[in-house]
Design brief:
Shape: globular
Number of strands: 6
Distance between the termini: 28 Å
Strand content: 15-25%
Radius of gyration: 15 Å
């Protein structure tokens, strides 16, 4: 199992996907909204837990997921900083980075989808996009090109 920090992503509900999940660090919607929209830095708002990526390399999964989450939120999202084996998700070591500074966040507008509307809306949207990206169809290649041009 691999656990990696997710910075700048607005979520309050766990997102279960095929072989991996996104665990929110905040339950208060207003607090995570404020943190995720901070244009001065990227705040740690969730943890990506990868249990199984199948044939996909973890680096490819992270790259695609960053693109999908950036599209969904219309803000840049960063997935980096692996948790140590002994670290617990809700009890991180003092030296684990809780925010990233030094780069300005791109803001392209409002959310495409929010987990405040429907509990499964974010999971469904992310899952569908990731499934298309993992395929080798013509439609998948066109979707990849359009997604990363927008992100």
């Amino acid at each position: 199992m691999v656990r990696i920090g997710v910075y700048g992503f607005e979520c309050t509900k766990e997102i279960l996907l095929d072989g991996y999940s996104i665990i929110p660090l905040y339950k208060d919607g207003l607090e995570v909204k404020t943190l995720s929209r901070d244009e001065a830095c990227y705040h740690l708002t969730a943890i990506l837990v990868i249990n199984n990526t199948g044939d996909l390399k973890p680096e490819s999964l992270i790259f695609d997921l960053e693109g999908v989450l950036s599209f969904v939120t219309q803000k840049d999202i960063i997935i980096k900083n692996r948790l140590r084996d002994k670290e617990a998700i809700f009890s991180l070591d003092d030296d684990f980075p809780t925010k990233l500074t030094g780069c300005r966040r791109a803001n392209r507008g409002s959310l495409v989808i929010s987990d405040n509307i429907c509990k499964e809306s974010a999971s469904l949207c992310i899952s569908l996009a990731m499934n298309v990206l993992s395929g080798d169809s013509v439609e998948g290649k066109v979707f990849r090109k359009a997604l990363f041009k927008n992100s």
